[in-house]
Amino acid sequence: MRKTVEARIAEVERKMVVRPTAEVLQGLVGPDARESWKALEEAENHQRMNAVMRFLFAAVKIKEATKKGRQFDYGRIDIEQNPIWL
User: Fold this and answer.
1) Does 31 fall in a domain?
2) What is the pTM of this model?
3) How far is the CA of 77 from the CAs of 10, 60, 61, in angstroms?
């Protein structure tokens, strides 16, 4: 029975999302934030950019399209803030 419980715990832990701490924002706040972000883009530091997004937002949900066509409807996007900001 212990093996079963440990396996279930391991499965749940594997599915958990670990949010980075506030240190991920170091150097990305203040008046030079835009330039700092551009530097991350130019360096293709996607791992850090992803960590920043995970820190700031809990989820980004895109609703189903209501119209056909090649235009993307940005009104379909719902962004849920990370609860620490509420």
Assistant:
1) yes
2) 0.58
3) 33, 7, 6
